[in-house]
Amino acid sequence: MAMPRIHVAADFRVGGDVVLPEGPARHVALVLRLGEGAPLVLFDGAGLEAHARLIEAGRKRVVARVESLESGRGESPLAVHLGQAISKGDRMDYAIQKAVELGVAAITPLYVERGDVRLKGEREAKKLAHWQGVAVSACEQCGRASVPRVHPPQTLDAWLAARGERLRLVLHPATDDSWRQAEAVDSAALLIGPEGGLTDAEVAAAQHAGFQPLTLGPRILRTETAPVVALTLLQHYFGDL
Fold first, then answer.
1. In what helix (H) or strand (E) does residue 231 lie, and over which residues does it extend?
2. DSSP letters along 26-77, please?
3. pLDDT per residue over 186-204, tens digit each?
């Protein structure tokens, strides 16, 4: 059985004790049923891992003592910022989860013309917290020690205006594969549209912002499947796959 990995936003030091927050503590004590003396790995979300051992594992309090520290080793040399059109239900969760597993550096949920989700106020804040939690859980599973930030949702125009990555790709049928010939790319932006696709005007706006069309073959992929395939391609050509 793999050693449990738990995200705790804390300052780690060798010999120091870490009191686990309520959610992780409940998971360790009640779900994993770990007892005193059990080893586990804590990570701070900013790239540092702590090998620790439980010294207290009660229903109301779980404490781990740090035995050693090391830098996380799960980060890709390619920093990809994913702009993902917001989709309903579990589809957005799936896209975020798999993007994190594939080494994405940041994710921005996008409001687009054919998108059928509009969030405001408290509902948007709750959804953003949920999506960030999905990213944390994916890091716990896949071995990353740096948690990618899920940015607050924004309009496509605002996201495009802020892009400065060396390579910028928009999912759209194309015959030009010149992006594959790019050399020494260490950052990329990837734009994925909604189930109904981006409009011609949105694709034109992306191209005006320096985005090249990216096609993923003759079959139409779902909006949550597309980032998995596109990120796999990017990691193969410029990252660590």
1. helix 226-238
2. HIIIIIS---TT-EEEEE-BBSEEEEEEEEEE-SS-EEEEEEEEEE-----S
3. 999 999 999 889 999 999 9
Q: Which long-range contacts (C-beta less than 8 Å, at least 24 apart) are formed by 165-170?
A: 165/79, 165/81, 165/189, 167/212, 167/238, 168/206, 168/209, 168/210, 168/211, 168/212, 169/211, 169/212, 169/213, 169/214, 169/230, 169/234, 170/198, 170/203, 170/206, 170/207, 170/211, 170/212, 170/213, 170/214
- Token digits of residue 94: 């799936």
* Cα–Cα distance, 122 to 104 (Å, whole number): 27
> Are the C-beta atoms of residues 79 and 186 closer than 8 Å to each other?
yes
pTM above threshold 0.85: yes
Residue 187: C-alpha distances to residues 45, 105, 215, 238 (Å): 20, 9, 19, 9
pLDDT digits (tens, 9 = 90+) for 65-103: 999 999 998 899 999 999 999 998 899 999 999 999 999
Residues 138-177 pLDDT 10s: 999 999 999 999 999 999 999 999 999 999 999 988 767 7
Which residue carries 């790709």 as its tokens?
169
